[in-house]
Amino acid sequence: MKAASFIALALATTALAAPAMAQETFKVGVSVGLTGYAAAVDRAWRDGLEVAADYVNSKGGVRGRKIQLVIEDNKSEPQEAVTVYRKMISSDKVNIFISGCVSAGNFAAAQFVVRAQIPMMLCSILPPQPDQVKWAYSFLAPPRFEVEKRFAYLKDKTPIRKVGVLHDPSPYANLQKDLAVKAAPDYGIELPVVEQYKQDDADFSTQISKMESAGAKAVLKIGLGGSTVTTAKNIKQLGLNTLLLGSVDDLAVFKPTGETLGNQFLFVAAPAQVYETLPEGALKQEIARFLPLWRAKHGDRDAVWAGKAWDALMVTVAAIDKAQSFDGEAIRAAVETLPPYQGTGGIYSFSPTVHQGITTNPFFMATYENGKVMVKN
Amino acid sequence: MSITTGNILEVRGLTARYGEVTALRSADLDLKEGELIAVLGPNGAGKSTLMRSIVGLTSASGDVRFRGELLPRNAAAVAARGIALVPEGRGIFGPMSVEENLQLGAYMINGRGEDYERRLSRVLTLFPRLKERLSQAAGSMSGGEQQMLAVGRALMADPKLLLLDEPSLGLAPKVTAEILETLAELNRSGLSVLLVEQKAPLALKIASRAYVVVNGRISTEIDTKEITSHDQLARYYFQ
Amino acid sequence: MTNSPATISSKLMAALRHAPAIAAAGMVAYAIADGGYIVTVVGFGLIYTIFVAGLNIFMGYAGQTSFGQNAFAAIGAYASAVLTATYGWPPLLAALAGIVATAICAFVIGYPTLRLKGHYLAMATLAIGLIIYEVAVQWQSVTNGYMGISGIPALGIGHYELLSDRAQLIFLAIMAVLSLAASWLLRHSRFGRALVALSGSEDAARALGINVRQYKLTAFIISAIYASISGTLFVHIVGFISPEMIGMNMVILAFTMLYVGGIGTTTGPLIGAIVIGLLPESIRSFKDYQDLVYGAALILILIYAPGGIASLDQVVKKLLRTKAPAKEVAP
Ligand SMILES: Nc1ncnc2c1ncn2[C@@H]1O[C@H](COP(=O)(O)OP(=O)(O)O)[C@@H](O)[C@H]1O
Ligand SMILES: [Mg+2]
To answer: Which ligand has an atom closest to residue B45 CA?
Structure first.
């Protein structure tokens, strides 16, 4: 029985190690991929939540309770996500989930979250089952906005009507690709070449040349990370004047890409990335509430995903205030009847039928030139 | 059924190659029913290759007849005809118990039942030391005991013909003598035996005839009664 | 004194031999009683017990190597997921279809590759795992790609569904016990002995009349069926499947469980799956150092119990033996 008592002891120690809370808190469960493929976005999501929670707690918390984040690493793996979600449901007894962008992990855990009647605010897309969507709210802008912004720019500001699509195989990129194919005719745009790449491919010259010879004067790049920089380098090496149109990403990606291609590179910018150039108004005000706190802790690290996490917590707090309750069902109902909420990433208007809160396109087209982000529309 | 020759085993023109190397060249060999003969020869001569080719473990060209019938070139099928090989290095299954090893020897009859019990008690009478160690892991026994198990396992198949490849390898002289005496006893009770040995004097004591293999060829056939001294034998090896 | 020290210690040793397996079973019982999230962890552990028990038949008994068992779990998982969620089949029928598909697939794959030896076989199986993963990603019309398939019903027959966590865990425990019992029977059958024999020496096995190729293939198919069943159970418990869930990490985890539990032993898969399943949970409070502690724990286990936890009694025996002479010196 040695092994059993050892493990039982270890488990007991873990339970004791958790700080005993004198005062009751409002527990927010956070399933994030701190390691694995989602780490870049999910670490920012967690850090944004911490800034937001500190801010709310410094103002006295929500309805007299301090916010306590219970953060668990799902290693970007769905099975691990199920485990940590269930831990947070039955051991930590969290009141709500504000989880990261590992879609498959959120989907895999959804049925358990729904059974426990806990609302889930997500950085990812919504789970596909209707009974699960009922409890899930996405803070992601609909993928079509990223595509439409770029098509509209081409249509309004350039003569380019033939575009090549370069996308990775992730669900989000695939979704955007399909949307692009569907929406292109509405903008009078043709997509003669649609190419998929793998995240770790090191050269896209072939794909780019293929697009060039098909007459495409712009590349619609769909997918995160270093591949965008690689694409820029390849365009430059080939000596083409092709435009590169990047999707929403981290400034850490936009900077080297802009430094390579100059104004030949345009990207879809989130509001927090163009803060300095925003006109006065509700959007700028909300970002101004968050950004100094963020910069105090994290310097000039990109604030887009952290800002969305901030938004998710602020919407939650607003819902609790409206519901005058910490009950899951009450919070859920309140989220759906909240007036449109101005966040750092756009305006969130949830309703019983709309669970993806951003309904108007919040994006800008921008370039990165001479060390600065410049808005182009 | 052509038992007319009275040979249990006839090997004709058996040739085996490992890539470019011809390890066995056109070997001919006869073994009469109830005979115990030896195959002698220095290290690397091709003795093991001969044995393996006979039972179909090594692919070879030429004919091997068992009681007048051609043997298939497939070891499992050869075993089914009643030919058991005690391989070089014993081939004991170390992690398994002695009993499981013996059960595997009787693999063809599924290692249980009346027949099995009869064979088992015969082997344990021949090698009483195995009896005390039935549940012990075979690999934990001494070399001599393992060789006894290897022979015992082969006998569990109730073979018509027993082939042994250097059973004395790595054993103390006393243990070797014990095992060879058991083989002689088995032969006296009617079992045909083909024994490969490097230690010629030992083998010649119990064999009625011997073949000498040198450089992949069966060079000589000796009548053991002719051999009287070690020097004489050395001549056969190096002629 | 009626008992001599020798018989006491031999009784103790006999008890010690079963201690790890009993402890693992105790953890399962504890989880059933406790009902918290440990149910999930132990539930995954039991599903992996079945997966690893299959791997153990091929690797532990037959001495072969397969890095591609995830392929067969994937076939079982996706067959169950697609047939129940998309086409509304009853789970049992879907599981059977998955098993049949897996067996056919294992035959088609195993027939040519099992002629390969050692590293080549391992590489070939690795490729199979990668190919099936790629199929799960690319065959979007059926698998839904990375988006995965959700809405997979709970296990059940007719109108009776296993919905509560406890009921599911008890069911998984029964399935795991059946798998291990089947594995034990197999190991102690003529077929099982033949597998262990061919893992020791294929030539020696052949010379005894064992059809080595046919037996290796059969062992491969049986291990694939175990994997398929574990895949089916997994999707019905979680209700969701996506390619990441059947990737290489599954293979790495299973190998760890097999070696930590004790390769070649019947209860090793259970012990390994429970220990490796619970280990990360018991050190969750280490947060950022969790992976480090996990790795250190693995290394310690494999150093001090190289045959796996299932053969811990051997380690104790060895320790006692080295200490024994000191006693004899005392007057
Ligand atoms: N598996 C093998 N591959 C290549 N060469 C081999 C192999 N087995 C044996 N040989 C070679 O064949 C020759 C005969 O070997 P063997 O039959 O084992 O001799 P013996 O048993 O008389 O010592 C030797 O030269 C040996 O090096
Ligand atoms: Mg030899």
So the answer is: 1
Tell me which CATH homologous superfamily contains domain A2-142+280-348: Response regulator (3.40.50.2300)
Residues 120-139 of A with CB under 8 A from C: 127-129, 132
3-state secondary structure A274-304: HHHHCCCCHHHHHHHHHHHHHHHHHCCCCCH
CATH superfamily of the A143-274+363-375 domain: Response regulator (3.40.50.2300)
C327 pLDDT band, cuts 50/70/90, is very low
- Ligand 1 interacting residues, C-beta cut-off 6 A: B 18, 21, 23, 41, 43-49
Please give the residue of chain B at the shortest CA–CA distance from C203: B57
Mean pLDDT computed over every residue of chain C = 86
| Conformational region of residue C147, where left means phi above 0, alpha means psi within -120 to 50, and beta covers everything else | alpha
Please give, rounded to a whole number of angstroms, the shortest distance from the CA of A91 to a CA of chain C.
7
- Domain range summary for chain C, segments of one domain joined by +: 10-319
C188 min Cα distance to partner chain B (Å): 9
Residues of B within 8 A of C212 (CB-CB) are: 76
pTM here? 0.85
Per-residue confidence at B2, pLDDT binned at 50, 70, 90?
very low
C89-103 pLDDT, tens digit each: 888 899 999 999 999
Q: Which atom of ligand 1 is nearest to the CA of B24?
A: 14
**Which whole-number Å values give the CA distances from B55 to B10, B167, C204, in the listed order?**
12, 17, 11
User: B239 falls in which pLDDT band (50, 70, 90)?
Assistant: very low
Phi, psi at B36, each rounded to 5°: -125, 110
Please name the CATH architecture into which domain C10-319 falls. Orthogonal Bundle (1.10)
Which ligand is nearest the CA of B39, by number? 1
pLDDT digits (tens, 9 = 90+) for C312-323: 877 777 777 766
Predicted pLDDT of residue A22? 54
pLDDT, residue C8, reads: 62
- Show the domains of chain B with their CATH numbers: 1-82+161-239 (3.40.50.300), 95-158 (no CATH)
Q: How far is the CA of B18 from the centre of ligand 1 (A)?
A: 8
- What are the tokens at C257? 């469980």
Please list every residue in chain C whose beta carbon sits closer than 8 Å to the beta carbon of residue A73. Answer: 290
C-alpha to C-alpha distances, C205 to A182, B75, B226, C195, C253, nearest whole angstrom:
63, 9, 39, 9, 32
Residue A228 has pLDDT above 80, yes or no: yes
- Residue B48 Cα to ligand 2 midpoint, Å, equals 4
Q: Do A135 and A111 touch, CB atoms closer than 8 A?
A: no
